[in-house]
Design goal:
It is a single chain. This protein folds into 2 domains: about 1-65, no CATH class; about 85-235, no CATH class. Helix content is about 45%, strand content about 20%. It is built from 7 helices and 10 strands. The protein is elongated and about 70 Å long.
C-alpha cells in the first residue's frame, strides 16, 4: 500500500494537542491566583477560566486524534498494512481525513475514537464506557449517529471528486466506520447496520472480503490518479 500524507497538517495539530492541555492548566492556575490577589477583577478572572477551559478541551480533542500511540494517523495505516501497491491511502488530503483508493473505487474511512462497548439495534447506536460522563466532559465526542456522519463524509468526497473529475459519477465511493481503540467491543449486526462497522483488527479482512468491483478501467484509473495527484512518490507501507 502506498501512503500520501499531509504531514504539515498533522504536525501542526499534534503540536497543539501536546501543548494546549498544559496551556489550559496554566490559565486555570492563573485564574485561581487572580481570584485571591485581585478579587475585584472578577470578570477578568472568569474570562481567564473560560479561555483555559476551551484551550484544555481543544488540546484534549486534538490530542485524542493526533498524539500518542492511538493517534488516528498511526492507527489507520496500521490497520491496512499488507495491502498491495494497487491501494493508496490518502491522509488529510481530501475532504475526509482518510480515503483509501482501491482498484475499484474509493472507500472513505470514518474514524471513531470511542472505547468501551458500542452497539447498534433497531436504528439506535448505544455507547457504554467506564467514566463515560467524565470523558465527555473532558472533550470526548458522543457516539451520535456514526452511520450518518460516515455517509455524509462519503458524499462530500464524492462531490469533491466530481469537481476534479467530471467522470467521477462512474467511480464508486463508499464508507466504512472504523473504531480505533484497542479495547472496543462492537455488538453490531453486519446485515442490519446502515454502514459497515469494523475494528482495526478486522478492517483489512473486510476490505478483502468486500472489494469494490469491477476494477476501474485503465483510462478511469489514470484519470483518477491525475485528479488525486497520485504521483508514485509517496511512502509505502
Amino acid at each position: 500500500m502506498q501512503v500520501m500524507t499531509n504531514e504539515s497538517y498533522i504536525n501542526r495539530r499534534k503540536k497543539i494537542g501536546e501543548l494546549a492541555p498544559f496551556a489550559g492548566l496554566i490559565l486555570l492556575a492563573a485564574s485561581a491566583v487572580l481570584i485571591v490577589v485581585k478579587p475585584e477583577w472578577l470578570w477578568v478572572t472568569m474570562a481567564v477560566v473560560w479561555v483555559g477551559f476551551i484551550v484544555s478541551l481543544t488540546g484534549s480533542y486534538l490530542g485524542e486524534r493526533f498524539v500518542g500511540a492511538n493517534a488516528h494517523w498511526k492507527r489507520v495505516p496500521d490497520a491496512l498494512k499488507g495491502l498491495s501497491r494497487d491501494y493508496w491511502l490518502l491522509m488529510y488530503q481530501l475532504a475526509s481525513p482518510f480515503v483509501l483508493v482501491e482498484p475499484g473505487g474509493l472507500t472513505v474511512i470514518s474514524v471513531k475514537p470511542q472505547g468501551g462497548q458500542v452497539s447498534y439495534e433497531d436504528g439506535r447506536w448505544r455507547h457504554r464506557q467506564k467514566l463515560g460522563f467524565l470523558r465527555r466532559f473532558a472533550g470526548q465526542e458522543s457516539i451520535g449517529r456514526p452511520d450518518r456522519f460516515a455517509s455524509a463524509e462519503a458524499e462530500v468526497v464524492r462531490d469533491q471528486l466530481a469537481k476534479r473529475l467530471p467522470e467521477a459519477t462512474e467511480i464508486p465511493v463508499r464508507a466504512v466506520i472504523l473504531f480505533t481503540q484497542p479495547d472496543i467491543e462492537l455488538d453490531v449486526d453486519a446485515d442490519a447496520v446502515p454502514v459497515p462497522t469494523v475494528r482495526v483488527a478486522t478492517l483489512k479482512r473486510w476490505l478483502r472480503k468486500n472489494p469494490l468491483s469491477p476494477r476501474l478501467s485503465v483510462e478511469a484509473q489514470v484519470l483518477l490518479s491525475e485528479a488525486l495527484l497520485l504521483d508514485g512518490e509517496a511512502g509505502v507501507e
